[in-house]
């Protein structure tokens, strides 16, 4: 009898795979002097994300990550005085918990360390709407 291959999700929180644009910069002051690298957010949860970055990002480093939530700014325009046409952006301090490097590109897993309450609520609302 052939053995079935089962992959059981070990995460307590579901992850969402959407092609988000992001940027990442080492969290060292002054932040305005730190180079930011473009990144692709491969998947995201309310507690962390997996990013692909065209640079080598070391495991254990603390990074500031900005993730665009496309289309969310239109929902905010309908419910508040938000008038910005640019994509809504979640800015969060993260720690790199794992990294795979290949040809000067890193795929990294980050955990969110410090997210303000409004960004946390916006991300939770955005992910809930994407799920339904």
Structural class: alpha+beta
Q: How much helical structure, as a percent, in the residues?
A: 10-25%
CATH level-four homologous superfamily name: predicted glycosyltransferase like domains
Number of domains: 1
Strand order of the largest sheet: 1-2-3-6-5-4
Order of helices and strands: EEEEHEEH
- According to CATH, what is the class? Mainly Beta
Q: How many DSSP helices?
A: 2
Oligomer: single chain
Short summary:
The protein has 132 residues and is α+β, with helices and mostly antiparallel strands.
Protein described:
The protein has 132 residues and is an alpha+beta fold. The protein is built from 2 helices and 6 strands; from the N terminus they run ββββαββα. The protein has a 6-stranded antiparallel barrel. The longest helix is centred in the last third of the chain and has 15 residues, at 117-131. The chain is globular and about 35 Å long. This is PilZ domain-containing protein. Residues 9-128 form the PilZ domain. GO terms for molecular function: cyclic-di-GMP binding. InterPro entries: PilZ_domain (IPR009875).
């Amino acid at each position: 009898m052939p053995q079935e291959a089962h992959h059981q999700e070990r995460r307590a929180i579901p992850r969402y795979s959407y092609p988000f644009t992001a940027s990442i910069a080492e969290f060292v002051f002054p932040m305005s002097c730190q180079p930011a690298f473009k990144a692709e957010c491969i998947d995201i949860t309310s507690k962390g994300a997996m990013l692909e970055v065209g640079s080598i990002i070391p495991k254990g480093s603390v990074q500031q990550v900005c993730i665009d939530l496309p289309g969310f700014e239109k929902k905010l325009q309908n419910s508040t005085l938000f008038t910005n046409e640019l994509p809504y952006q979640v800015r969060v301090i993260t720690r790199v918990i794992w990294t795979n490097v290949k040809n000067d590109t890193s795929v990294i897993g980050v955990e969110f360390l410090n997210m303000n309450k409004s960004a946390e609520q916006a991300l939770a609302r955005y992910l809930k709407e994407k799920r339904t």
